[in-house]
Design a protein that fits this description.
This protein is mostly helical and 73 residues long. The protein has one domain: Helix Hairpins (Orthogonal Bundle), CATH 1.10.287.310. It is elongated, with a radius of gyration of 13 Å.
């Protein structure tokens, strides 16, 4: 997972891509946890924190986060 300094150094397009990737990874981890396949639940925590860091940076920059969620419609 990306560190806060790495996330801050990302361009807007890289940040949007990172958000999509982290959301996809988190969904997969949640699915594995629900089905009992996930052995190391610490990955869930790391993924949630990485998503929160990226969302915080996006909000600080004033990036429209909803635009990066258009694939969920």
């Amino acid at each position: 997972m990306a560190q806060a300094s790495e996330i801050r150094d990302m361009s807007e397009s890289e940040l949007r891509e990172h958000l999509q990737t982290v959301r996809r990874d988190l969904f997969g981890l949640r699915f594995q946890h629900a089905t009992g396949e996930l052995e190391n639940t610490a990955g869930l925590r790391r993924a949630k924190r990485s998503l929160a860091r990226a969302l915080t940076v996006a909000r600080q920059r004033g990036i429209d986060i909803q635009a990066s969620r258009s694939d969920r419609s």
